[in-house]
Fold this protein.
Amino acid sequence: MDIARRMWTLIEPLHAVTYFTPQARAAFEAAGLRGFWRGYFAGRAAPLGAVGAGPVEAMFFGFAPAMVRRALPDVWNRATPAAALIARLDGARAALSAVLPGGDLTEAASLLRRAAEAVELPGRPLAAANADLPWPEDPLGQLWHAATVLREHRGDGHVAALLVAGLDGAESLVWRSSLDSTREVLQPARGWTDAQWEAATDRLAARGWLDSGAATEAARAARDAVERQTDALAAGPWHALGPDGTATLEKLLAPLSAAALRLLPEPNPIVFPRAAPQ
């Protein structure tokens, strides 16, 4: 497995506790953001400031515009971006501290921060917005913040790869449901109507990527090409950290990521390959 892909499998669970844990939900609700999706949209968009629906539709990509517009800009009437930023970090800290194995996080946090500080920012709006925030002072906070910068950096690159492949948001979800997820998980989680989903299905079938709803060889080849491009666009921080630093970090993150992964529900709309057992 490519190094950028391997590191993603370790980083994604550390960030994703922000969305799926009771501690994160409680922190968002305490800030005035009741309901899962208010916390999600406010927490993820908060580094951008009190942004409206349009930029979020563009950057979050796979979400139906109507779903984004139900949340934004209304969430900013319930909590300021500053309050949402505090809530998401507090929730992530609480979730991770409850499950991480004992030990000093300083080395892992320091190495992951070095990687996060090496991300390329041009064309990476979500990564850049998070990278522009002040760093937490504690190792656990730094670990989570670095994971967040790196996962948004990869996500920005993935959106670029999807666009190069000629996919829109709805098509990317229909295509993915034929490969490594299901319509039952992805459609409601991203807000597309049945009519929009079926129209995207028809477009992919006309392109030769679906046959009676199943992925064709062309669709699988395109998936491999998109993932290779995503990995290539995400590789910069790991080259900057170097092979020795990255190898050390990989070993340090393995038990932390495994603990965080156990907090995530199955199934969930974030589909990523699991790291090999350590």
In short: The mean pLDDT is 95.
